[in-house]
Every structure is written in structure tokens, then in C-alpha cells.
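#lab-general

N.A. 3:47 PM
ok so I finally got the sequence cleaned up, no stray characters, all 106 residues accounted for. can someone with queue access submit it? mine expired

B.Y. 3:52 PM
send it over

N.A. 3:53 PM
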Amino acid sequence: MNSPQTPDKINNLKTPTTWMIKVIEALEKGNLDKKTTSNIAKKALKKIEKYSPKIGENENYENVKDLCISLSTVDRAKDNFQKFYLESLKEELNKMLTILEEEKNE
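B.Y. 4:20 PM
back already:
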């Protein structure tokens, strides 16, 4: 992820969730810094907020927004807490991705 970009278009909640996981992985690898990560997460949040959730997506929509808000505050995390913060956030994003995939298959 040399040039981090927010998702172009959000047609479902899986798109921003997958994107956030990739951004965290880029941050962990050192391809992104915390400030850039925070800034692009704020831009992504604006796109997520413009997305109109489909019937039955409201709870997951709010959770995806909350996860993006959490990612946008990564620039405040320091030292050992940053590692814990990112691991926890990635775990929650992976859980959300599983939920979204299960709902898609129903």
C-alpha cells in the first residue's frame, strides 16, 4: 500500500471492513505511519457515513463506523499500547468481516 487510498465506492459494509484490515496491516509493516493512517481513516469515515445501510444492516453499519472511528484515533496510541490497540482493532474487524460474510450467505 504505497499510496494509501480510501475505498472508491462503498456498496456494502464488507468493503470498508476489508480496507481497514489492509490499512492496519500496512501500518504494522511500516508502510504507513500513524498520522497518515489516522487521516485516511477520517476520509474513509466520511464515505462510510454517506453509505445508506440496507434493511437489516443498521447494527453492523454502526459497528463498522465505530471501528473506523477507532482506526482514526490510532495516532494517539503510544508504544506497547499501540500494538495492543492494533491487534484488538484487527480482531474486531475480522469478527465483523465474518459476521458480514455469514449474513451474505443467508
